[in-house]
Fold this protein.
Amino acid sequence: MSAKPTTIKEIAKILNISPSSVSRGLHDHPSIGAVTREKIKQLAQSLNYQPNNAAILFQKGKTYTIGVILPELSEHFFSTAISAIEDEALKKNYTVIFAQSHDDYEQEVKLVEKMKNQRVDGLLVSISKDTSKFDHFERLNSFNIPVVFFDRIPPFKNVHYVACSIENATVKAVNYLLKKGHRTIGMINGPTTLFASEERKEGYMQAITFNRLKFDPSLIVNCDLTEKGTIEAANQFINHKRKPTAIVTFNDYVALFLIKYLKKANVVNEFDVVSFANLPFISYLDHTPIASIEQYPYLQGQKAANILLDLINSPNPESQAYYNTLVESDLVINSEKL
Amino acid sequence: MSAKPTTIKEIAKILNISPSSVSRGLHDHPSIGAVTREKIKQLAQSLNYQPNNAAILFQKGKTYTIGVILPELSEHFFSTAISAIEDEALKKNYTVIFAQSHDDYEQEVKLVEKMKNQRVDGLLVSISKDTSKFDHFERLNSFNIPVVFFDRIPPFKNVHYVACSIENATVKAVNYLLKKGHRTIGMINGPTTLFASEERKEGYMQAITFNRLKFDPSLIVNCDLTEKGTIEAANQFINHKRKPTAIVTFNDYVALFLIKYLKKANVVNEFDVVSFANLPFISYLDHTPIASIEQYPYLQGQKAANILLDLINSPNPESQAYYNTLVESDLVINSEKL
DNA sequence: CGAAATTAATCAAACGTTTGCGTAGTTTTT
DNA sequence: AAAAACTACGCAAACGTTTGATTAATTTCG
């Protein structure tokens, strides 16, 4: 019943030559004559020979596999990035294995360890929300396993990373609102622990001060990104002595919570909302953010994968400078509203 | 710089015993004395020994890897299912490799071949839209690689599959509309080539005839699931001599296209819409389908993965009956509208 | 006390492929 | 015609681990 796959040895035996010659023949090694080579290839073909990957991986000490660790596979951003990573890896004949940390630091540590044991050739990581120590990644250095971070990256430069400049994006968002005439702009930011929150704050301040406006810290409200937290933040704005006329939100979900609440409070028309992520459904909404920052997950995934594959195949990974790639983000104006 | 991982041989040499003893010691083989066993384990621990997976896989001829082939990683349904598959596999210490067919038959065939070469222990597949031949899967039989289909399954029973009964779901949807008093119900169905379209039609007819209503075939319109196609279908209903008061759509996207168009045509209040998928954003919309069929992608992924792992580890896969698992679907009433 | 059983370990082969080195046999060079 | 070079292939080791067969030493039992 169970057909055993053909091996090089069998081909060798049939052709009365050595396995090494078969191997070389199949790889077009110059030391195999054209006649023999063709005989080998033809027989291999007709026996439907398929190299035993496990054996090759083992022999070469390379797995042609890259690991991807990220918080949540089912989030739109990540699933899109994954799609790109998969596509790029396939082109270069690499296999991808995924694992999700579910935003848990302990789990992330375990997964890194597991990936190492799987002997992945390299790792692509988007770190979990509560990761603040990075020695589990540093340990990979001694095994020559390169790591490229993407999107959720550690807050320092001496690693390889691909990310979107949240700061620049925030500047764009705020500038857009300023250009539309808004002078009091609120921001619902994420928890202060997140680097991304820091960046948003920086961008906000940069845009405000560049335009010679006074920065009012009370217009930035930190929020846990839940619906409840968003409502609390919304109330702060509604009751603010300098009530803002526009609000920048941490992401599209927060924007949705916000708009839902603003509608309920019957003040939805008093605010323009700009948000991050540009999720596909945004354009289907009735009351939408007037714009959303597109962070190009596919592109980010693509770049990250290519950098990693470069690192894997670079002869001297030690001497490499760090790839610090910023993907530009774009403010997508919701044309329905124009 | 590059630390070579510790091997069994090295441990053996240090302890002056044979590699086989080390291997057995680490695996609690009874023929290794307790004292030696502990010595082995301690040394392994302190040298941070990690078994070389590639070597084990090669030696065992098993990869502890399952392959997953599906149309599009970034679709919500699939990314959720994947999330489940990953979680289940991890529990049983299996690794998962993914690949996307992008709904292309040729690509699917290639991927199946690639997975076979990767020597996956089993395969989880959601077939591409234009797959109508299945010999690329049948070829796996002779290699003892079990296949479990999920969600998008072939139209016959002699395979393992997990899916949602679209037919039952459609019955539920139509019954719900009938209970709400609708007597003329339209359906925007998918292309006739899709098995899922067939099932929806069956369900529709079953509900209609069970309630002793006359079945009017012109109330089912096939559609290519694009926005353009949806608009054409919508127009057919709007201009229908028996204009329906409710419409069942193939999925949430079609529902969105439909509602968008109905709004533009100023007739959105003349129709109740019920749809499939229950995408998370549905509840954020202003004009939503009044209900959507939840197909529990996480559950489906979970079940499919477990069945596959069962098959992989069953001693006699040949004698197995076929798993034909139907996951119940639920009609989720959009409470915002009630 | 000798045979049988148990314990604790070793030996060697095997998994499939790759690759450095060696070696016939042939051709080219001087 | 001898030396050098090239062609086409074979040999054997190596990668790390597992496992069936074997052996040596110890214990148990009648």
In short: Chain A has a mean pLDDT of 89. Residues 7-9, 19-20, 22-24, 27, 51-52, 54-56, 58-60 of chain A lie near DNA strand C (CB under 10 Å from a C1'). Chain A has twelve helices and twelve strands. The longest strand of chain A covers residues 65-70.
